[in-house]
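Subject: Re: docking follow-up (zinc ion)

Dear J.,

Thanks for your patience while I sorted out the input files. As discussed at Tuesday's group meeting, I've set up the holo structure prediction with zinc ion included as the bound ligand rather than trying to dock it afterwards. The sequence and the ligand SMILES I used are pasted below, so you can double-check that they match what you have on your end before we go further.
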Amino acid sequence: MTVSSTHSTHAGVAAYWLVGVDVGGTTVATVLLDEMFRAYGELSFPTDLSSPDATMLGIVAAIEQTLALAPDSARRLAAIGLGIPGQQDPAQGIVRIAVNLHWYDYPLVARLTARFGVPCVIENDVRAATLGVYRFDNPAGDQNLAYMSIGTGLATGVILEGKLLRGRHGLAGEFGHIIIDPNGPLCNCGARGCLETLVSATAVVRRAREAVATGAAGALASMESITARAVYDAAAAGDATAQRIVNEVGAELARALRSVVLAYDVDSVVLGGGVTRAGDRYLAPIIAEWRRQQETSALARAVLRPEILRIADPNRNLGAWGAAALAADLVTIR
Ligand SMILES: [Zn+2]
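The structure tokens for the complex came back this morning:
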């Protein structure tokens, strides 16, 4: 690895490296940024889940390999930021609950600080990604925005008046677990019919499997293994069952996004996660439902404007970028 022991200055500004890390249940993604937030490379590694400490050591190795991307030795590492799924305690530097990583009250910041000798910060992964969107994928400079990450689960982060919302328990914006259908599918949180059980990528796959199990013919029935993306592709290709699922999910999501818009009165709502790579095809059924609501509602016409909806930049890991931005706040050598 390449870590220099000196740092130079130019134009009176200290030069240094920031490493941002997005820790997921399958992948650890990193980015190396300089003090001006210029990127020098992004890497990804499989997450080592063999033990809690192995997961930590895997992250250490990922950070070391990321630092090796540094093209010169004029900078030194100044800080590390990490976005981690689950409940985090940024003030204490402790991962409270990260079920998929098997971390419970795990002192991650102390471990990494001991290893790298620089300040480290942790934050919930979706909240870090929300900051990444706000700082690096925000062409209009919106000061009020919501980011919804849609994957195996669903979570939302909110920036209000330029500030990341956390709340008493770090749960502000946890729309994935608002109950939509009390008789709906059982959620990982123990409740039934939470939003994420109805519209996450996992839910799209479940709906498709249920349709096949109850006799739906067509593209879904002939798939060896159904993925959410494949359902969206099949819908685009004209498959009636896939179109029904995509439209139902879009309408449900549109109603949830209405709640997000009304709760926070944001300038924009940004959707991210693998399934949103379907792009305009992902947004179309959401916008269709908003337009239906506009037909009878002046309130809907005022606040559910399709132009506030967009898909996050799929070409960079905004979670890792946002974590690096959090790390920058720790740097005091300017
Ligand atoms: Zn739930």
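A couple of observations from a first look. Residues 177, 187, 189, 191, 194 surround zinc ion (CB under 6 Å). Residues 177 and 190 are 10 Å apart (CA to CA).

Let me know if you'd like me to rerun anything.

Best regards,
T.
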